Amino acid sequence: MNCGDIAAKPPVVVTPDATVEEAAEKMITHRVGLLVVVDKETRRKPIGVVSERDLLKAVAGKMPPTTTVDKVGTMGNYVYVYADDPITVAARKMKQNNVRHVVVLDRGGELYGVISIRDLIGERKVLEILAKEWAPSME
């Protein structure tokens, strides 16, 4: 099973000029914990991400709700996988980077989707693959 198989739903996106308030509203409306920040001209080109944690940090830091997401999110250095990567790559990157989401790209670097930890644990077949991958050897 590949990452593209799990990232079947269209990703929820914002542009870098979206406000923290707009991002929070979009997360609530779409029931997601991560928004992909995309280039204003090329909506299939991801340039960053903004997570629930980023928004909480902004609020706790007393940033105004009109602050733009490019000031609070992770721009440029976000965690990603390719759609044709095995799902174990997504799980490994989540663990290594201590994140709950990975962006899924096609091999051309265009946005394909997002995988959340919930997506991984919500699929029995995925859990079986991960268990087999990480199970201690009996040898």
UniProtKB/TrEMBL annotation:
Residues 7-66, 72-133 form the CBS domain. The keyword Hydrolase does not apply. Gene3D superfamilies: CBS-domain. SUPFAM superfamilies: CBS-domain pair. Keywords: CBS domain. Coiled coil: none annotated. This is Signal-transduction protein with CBS domains. The keyword Membrane does not apply. It comes from the Archaea.
